[in-house]
Amino acid sequence: xxxxxxxxxxxxxxxxxxxxxxxxxxxxxxxxxxxxxxxxxxxxxxxxxxxxxxxxxxxxxxxxxxxxxxxxxxxxxxxxxxxxxxxxxxxxxxxxxxxxxxxxxxxxxxxxxxxxxxxxxxxxxxxxxxxxxxxxxxxxxxxxxxxxxxxxxxxxxxxxxxxxxxxxxxxxxxxxxxxxxxxxxxxxxxxxxxxxxxxxxxxxxxxxxxxxxxxxxxxxxxxxxxxxxxxxxxxxxxxxxxxxxxxxxxxxxxxxxxxxxxxxxxxxxxxxxxxxxxxxxxxxxxxxxxxxxxxxxxxxxxxxxxxxxxxxxxxxxxx
Amino acid sequence: xxxxxxxxxxxxxxxxxxxxxxxxxxxxxxxxxxxxxxxxxxxxxxxxxxxxxxxxxxxxxxxxxxxxxxxxxxxxxxxxxxxxxxxxxxxxxxxxxxxxxxxxxxxxxxxxxxxxxxxxxxxxxxxxxxxxxxxxxxxxxxxxxxxxxxxxxxxxxxxxxxxxxxxxxxxxxxxxxxxxxxxxxxxxxxxxxxxxxxxxxxxxxxxxxxxxxxxxxxxxxxxxxxxxxxxxxxxxxxxxxxxxxxxxxxxxxxxxxxxxxxxxxxxxxxxxxxxxxxxxxxxxxxxxxxxxxxxxxxxxxxxxxxxxxxxxxxxxxxx
Lengths: 319, 319
Description:
By secondary structure, chain A is α/β, with parallel strands linked by helices.
């Protein structure tokens, strides 16, 4: 806020997948190891991020006081984190049908409240984990910030508060949340919808999806012969094609079949909706060396020839 | 949101004093007993609140599904809770001088982040405690909702999100928070400032301050001969006079002396700033029968002849 007329550029938006930071199938259970590793990777990536010319923070002054374990210099380009719910909130939401709306019904209201208690618990844990690594993380709950839907589609956002936080050197941490819906009373706003809106608003240099598998495969990774898709190119219309490896059309067809691909088509379409904006998306396994490289934007240079993950890029933008 | 054109009236705004729900002098320690009792009292008060005519929720439908332990019928007039920080956030904020601002300095940024981690932790605990009693509580962090200050004075609020939550039958829970400041970078927004703004915006029937002593005394309650002030009358200018008990002027003078009264003058002026709006304020010890009576607005009827607490009322409004 020291100089509201200059916006600090956003370098990278990170999606912390619910499946990566929680044990998706056991109630409100954290994947502490991956959360810790991811926090350390984020710190490293923030430290390596390009400096930005915004006069918001005095680097000299800041770095002088930082030192080991201190906070990251906010004179670097900003990062934004959005995490999913995983095993936090998911059960409460689905059992009460929050996404179907109807706050007239006590059961739905109970589910709405229980879902928020659970997802905000996870948000608090994530913010604390990042802060413990010296990252100036601040939680911004979409419901509290006024994000809402209309017939389940994003209706009102609050990009302004995220920008204000970035501009003073803070790292906003948003999350999938139960929100109000102008048509059906309430609904679930997914982290993916939030990421897409933020990517559109901030035009980051790249977006990273941290997940619990090595990237996107042509079929469930558990299946024999599952092939990791290295590079997918997306055009303006959102249509995409796998350019590496070269696949037989049959496999490509399978890739667009929701039922047989373990949701990989959904993953691709989420990434494609961002890549079509001209922003590259790196999908990679959380807590790995490849995740760190992705967070640093190094998915191509020689030192990372063997980078393992999926690049979903715009047909109009090279890496 | 089912009918945005009708605003649900706000019956009562409750301040949960930091000294009442936490052990003020031991780091991040809860006063579990008082929080539990207060949650039960709030549930009882909400159930007894007058019905409002807003068609927002179908009472028949709602009550049918509620039953013991279920959620409160949202067809009743709304309650709003604002809690202080007590031993959560206070230490982090004061040690780093967050209220003095200067996010250019890493120490202040660290303090800002640590303060928010601590106060949001308490907010989560309070929301969970209320929800456990079947109250549809939702946390609304002022920072996330966009409340901010300018030279430490409230600059931007977000009453809209609080109203939206009330309108769909939820009970918003706000708290004192570290916020951005357009002049000095950051500052502390106290729960009292938030309460005053909400009282102004919602014109509740009354406001209750739940604290850790029986009310406001003419000197520190620990002192011998400390006299509980039963009734204080406030005029439009905010000037106040103790009408019960009748005090010798000397004592009244003492009452306005910040140094010798254990902050009671501050307490009175906070309450007076609300009472001057024509809204009565009841200051009472949390967890007591008197607190329950205050939350129900019964500080005068015969059944509560012996109500113990301090009434700060407008000269232009009877009880």
